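Mods, move this if it's the wrong board.
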Amino acid sequence: MKGLLIKDFMLLKNQKSSLLIVAVIAVAMTAYLENTSFLIAYLAFIGSQFARNTISYDDFDNGNAFLFSLPVTRKSYAAEKYAFGLLVGGGGWLFGSGAAIIAGMVKGTVSPVDTLMIALLTFPMLLVLIAISVPFHLKFGAEKSGIAMIVIGFLLVAAFMLAARLTKAANLDLTALTDMLPAMNTTSAVLAGFIAGTVILLISLWVSIGIMQKKEF
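Not the wrong board. Structure tokens:
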């Protein structure tokens, strides 16, 4: 896996212009936005997308056929994509969190504690994003996976809208139900998010390994 990580970091190094654009946008967001917490999710998302794009580079010009002629197993290849996604996406998340905390302190708009809690609540979203995007990209490729992600997003929105309509049509009062639920403090929410994100990521890794085992190059 070490060799695969080095390969992907070298591919990332060749994308200097894209990284520079991301840095400029991040600086502009930090300068002009009062609440800089959005910067955390933005950099985490961009980092995960850079990691996902390495799959496209591997597919280019029949590159996978050469790659798997080397001592690289399909299982280690799938696992490396998750590890690389966590490193790059996590790096973006960490940098965004630090920048948001410093900007909030300088501007006096958001307290460091509040920004830190937002960052901790954002990290599980990064895990879920990697868990969704990697298997779709491995299965369908760059173009088709993009379409599939849009379709999934549309179906989720449609499901929420349908649930809201059915609830309203049935005259259900959800207030009483929510009042019965135990109050969950921020620490519990963060812990639950980390556990759920990790479980989803592990399931996704198992699915991706299965995809790679069946894939032909």
